[in-house]
TIR domain-containing protein
Amino acid sequence: MELTGSNAIASSSCSPYSLPVVEYEVFLSFRGPDVRTTFADFLYRLLDRPKIRTFLDDEELRKGEMISPSLVKAIGESRIYIPILSPGYASSKWCLQELALMLERYKQDEGSHIILPIFYLMEPRDVRHCKGSYEEALEQHRLKYGEETIRVWKDALEEVGQMTGWRVTESDRQGAVAESVFSEVWSHIKGNYTLLTNELIGIDSHVNHVMELLKSDFEGGINVVGIHGMGGIGKTTIAKAVYNKVFTQFEHHCFLEDVRETLSLKNDGVTTLQSKIISSILRDDHMVRDASQGIHIITNRVCPRKVLIVLDNVDDRFEFGQILGEVRKFSPESRFIITTRDKRVLELLQVSKLYEPSGMSHDHSLQLLRRHAFRMDNPLEDKTTLCEEFVKVAAGLPLALEVIGSLLFRRDRKFWEAKLIELKRIPPTKVQERLKISYDELSGSEKQIFLDISCVFIGENKELPFYMWSDCNFNPESGISTLILRSLLKVDVDNKFWMHDHVRDIGRMIVREEDEQHPWKRTRIWSNEDAVDMLINGEGADLVEVLKVDMRYEDFELMEKEFQNLSKLRYLEVHSGRLTGDFKNILPNLRWLRLHYCRSIPINELRVYRCDVLRKLPSLSNLTKLQTLKIFRCPLLSEIHGLSELAELSTLRIIECRKLTGVMGIDKLESLQVMKIRDCSSIEELPDVSALEHLRELKITGCNQLTEVMGVDKLESLQELTITNCVSIKKLPDLSTLKLLRELTIRGCNQLPEVVGIERLKSLQLLEITDCTSIEKLPDLSALEHLRELKITGCNQLTEVIGLGKLESLRELMITDCALIKKLPDLSALEHLWALTIIRCNQLPEVAGIERLKSLELLELTECTSIERLPDLSALEHLRNLKITGCNQLTEVIGLDKLESLQALRITDCASIKKLPDLFALEHLRELIITGCNQLTEVTGIERLKWSRYFTIDERLKTQKRLEHERWELLHRANNSRPKKWSRFHSCWGVCRKDSDIISL
């Protein structure tokens, strides 16, 4: 799902991979205390206005000795480096590392990177010669880093200090200097604006001709050059080449692609064009409300400037005056270039400077065909004649040569000959039919992707539809590569899909031909008029897979009945619609829902899963009916907006969003009942949650930058509280007010010294405190009358557990890795205890009272190296599992022979045990392991036991009667046929056969 606009959200789907994308254009390096709130802030805001992708590096945010791989990647990808060389810059090892890396990339990729240094309150010569504060800083670094490192840093400072940059003194207006830097950056960024490929064969003469027209005198103030000709002849390519050559001669410039397509928008094509012009010229986002407002802004703010504006692919719907106002009001130094298929459009505009490109010459046509058919300029000898024939068929049309040549790439002679015959049957005037032969050779999924792009995804980031196509098993990675290889698709510098309008029209023609008369019987509907008619008349058919509709100028609501018949719909895009009703189970095959500026969206549950490229989740404020929000494994997501507006949200789960720095607005979610935040390692602070009066379950896990959880003590409805692996938390509020709390788990909070108030949690049923290595003492637990499960693990500073012996409701008790505990209370009062596990409490000499635990079913004592004796266990009539391991001071296990319910017995590595009781009475025993008890010489009674599953015993042990070979074979077969479900004791089991071979299980 994706919502955009002032109230919006982003796509949710899954993708096992993501396409490569250049993250940043500018890398801004500075030392925070010097310039963070002054010059760096001014410059960043200027760069952010036209959405220049800027990596804002603040050395105070760096950790460790070396710069991170992600930062190295950002430097490698950025085109422009701006180090702000302030007095404290050299004191930062990270800044110096970055500067050295910038210089390395600058030299390595010659011409690919630019360094624009800012000398902030520094003389360039002091930077160049490392004088003053820089000399002192390097001397300090010399104490820690080797001479080679210092030399690299000094060389970097020397070279950058020699570069031309900007000086900022105390008397300078910093904002004005930042404006100057921005203008320089903007000129470089815009210089890389258009996508000019290496297919520009024979274009120079066309470009020179248009350049001469631009330089000539214009009569009557109509400073417009028109380029006209048939589709595919190269008009757009010529216009782009001219634009790239001359844009630096103008104060401002703008290239508007495919004006015809923009004006086809029923209601706001004109304002869309005006917004693009104004935003580009004024270098700021600007949304025009209506055409008259747009003309007013253009007349007053654009016309006085020297501008270059290219209007590409216009048709008879284009009227200069309705979009730009009077052309005579523009500066005489301004220039316009208009491309069109229809010369009459230029004549109506009274354009006198006209140019009509001719078809490519024979030699240039042959060169272009070869370049695409062979990926080289010289073909194989056996296809020379065929190349000549294809050149004749293409009739000098560059687009046809490109597409046909790409189709022939890596195909045999037979395929070439068949396609030549096919092309010769198509009249030269029917260019689209000739180009369509390339589409016909695509696979089924490649055709689906091609039609999707041509109908709705031109201009979209290429990664966004990937998720949907993957979900539909279209294999998008391969499909997009094929379309690019066939010259049916390109990707521009902004990572967006681009198609030649001729190729786009082929795709749309194919869809229209599915049913000429009834649009709702086609697979894709992108025309707003067709979409609205279908929804109003209820004519939706189950053939429609892709639907795009703009409801800005419609006066009806979208209800579930409008979508009931669209069972195959996988993509739905709605702009400014009002959706009402229950949409549950209406669109079973929907894979992508995009909602722009939609008010009150009736969605109950939103899942955003594995969106690898998602950086910002736009506002959720329109999802007023949302009850469940789950955001899972979005590694780049850093912002979530609009949470505070979700009045009905009851469940919030945010998992593995490692760049997310905060969750603002959760303190306003008064309906919230469940909140889980896991492995969001960049979150340092959460809002005070005290107002969440309905919150029942709060789990915060793996947020290792989080220092506190404010307001948790006010959550009177809270029943479950889990805080795990939050290693920076040093204090929790007093929890005694949580009267309804049933489960409390605190794990891996190794800076937390205490948990205050748990002794008054009368409703508590589960208490787990694990790996809290700073806790030395727990309060008296005796008042926890409902506690059923207690786990204390890895608290290696804890010395005692007060009140344990009075927990009469306790069912399970686990105490492990508490090395300083020397004594436990008498446990005999725990009459409901059924599981007791004590592991690695190696100062504990005894466990008093276990002989009276009549309900005990599981007893495990592992590596309790100080225990010398156990009480008589014979009264434990329900004991089914007994595990004693590594208790090397223990000498005997009294009462073992009376445990008639025992099913599993494991006694291992108990070096002091010399004797065990006769086991013949343990008729229910099914699992037996006795190993590593070096002083034990005999085990009696096992020959009369009924075995069914596991049996391991040292071969050296004597038995009362040696088992016959057949008996061992029976045990072997029993083990091989055992069920896969393991017992409570997770072990590797085996059988020792008579010949001492070990059978691995």
The CA atoms of residues 621 and 642 lie 5 Å apart.
